[in-house]
Hints:
454 residues; alpha+beta; 3 domains; 22 helices; 8 strands; 53% helix
Amino acid sequence: MRLGYDLTTEQSQRLIMSPVLLQSLRILAMNAQDLGDFAGEAVLANPVLEEESPYKEGLQAYLQEYYAAGGRGLPHGAKGPIQGSDALWQAMQEADGESDLAGILRRQLGLTKADHLVRSLCDYLIDSLDDGGYLTVTVEETVALGKGAIPREKVEEALTLLQSFDPAGVGARTVGECLALQLERRGELDDCYRQLLEEDIDLLSRNRIRELAEKYGLTATQMQRRVDVIRSLSPAPGSVLSQPEETIYLLPDVLLEKTENGYLASINERVVPSLRVSAYYESLMKEGAADADTQKYLKERVESAVRLLNAIAQRKETIRKVAQSIADHQTAFLDGSVRDMKPLTMRQVAEETGLHVSTVSRTVRGKYMECPCGLLELRSFFSGRLGPEGDGISAKSARAVLAEILKEEDSRKPYSDETIAGMMQERGIAISRRTVAKYRGQLGIPGSSKRRRY
């Protein structure tokens, strides 16, 4: 066996991504607001780069115009008017400046006349609530904290005090107790409800109406009414006052215009930062008025700025090409409804536009198009094919038909998955029972036994 070092040559192919390519891909994947932030940082870092117009102020003005026009709904995450009992929480928040569950409960605690120990214990229990308003410690654990100095009856008194606060159901230890507290607050808790919530939560969750009716000596209709009352309650009362999510404002990257020859996609220039190379620094470099080091620095900065401008221009053209290809494929959907959506994959669009599939994926992620039916993410126009032969039908179209069938069913005699598959086949959609069950689950629709009403 020979040991040693040898010098050999070898040929291999490797894809090396240049910094310019990496920057282009990074910019392509950004949504409009991320691109605006990135451009703002670039302007601060590069003195030869400047905004043609203030981007943030322009975007804010456009945002207000966009959501004020045409009766558009609130953006994702924004809160609507507070109505009904929720107005109580709004009043408390405005009065005390507290917007979370613990703050609202402590405000109510401050209005009680309980003794110091009970108030302290109640404050501890408030800190032991989860986001849904459920207690995460037991009475025994709380008593043990005092090492004999805290009477059990004081802990139970503090718990009773907590459970008397709004929202009703807060401080419960189980779902059944939470729902019972809400019924008690409404004056509707009787022995039947109490037993249902203590012993038969599982049967309730499985909608076993007939079985429950027989057990409690009621008719199916009477039990259905009781179940409806229970379902009207909140299983997580604390979520009403959970911390609000950050509001996300969606703006169209692409505008769609219907013409005689179909739909024409164009970039929404108002959401794209408008940058340019400073004429002053460009002329300074061309005239050679600066020393050699300054000239070298300016050349590097100008080249960096031009690369950024080219990357933004390439991003706009790529998004436009992909959006136009999507619009050409989904004309029937844009003119009609989701039932008319055609099967479309990213590979098809990539082949038509001459782009790589990964580039198409980056292009459609987080980008939105203003369509006749509303503001839609570009990614939502893609759908797999149902059926191996012919033009087939898109999976989204099949789910839309399924939703229509279930919307029209008699809740007293809900359709089985087998029946639904047969009805869809009558409408020209070849689909199996398993696929029906899969799509039904994706739509968040339970099985026939849980849809039945009496």
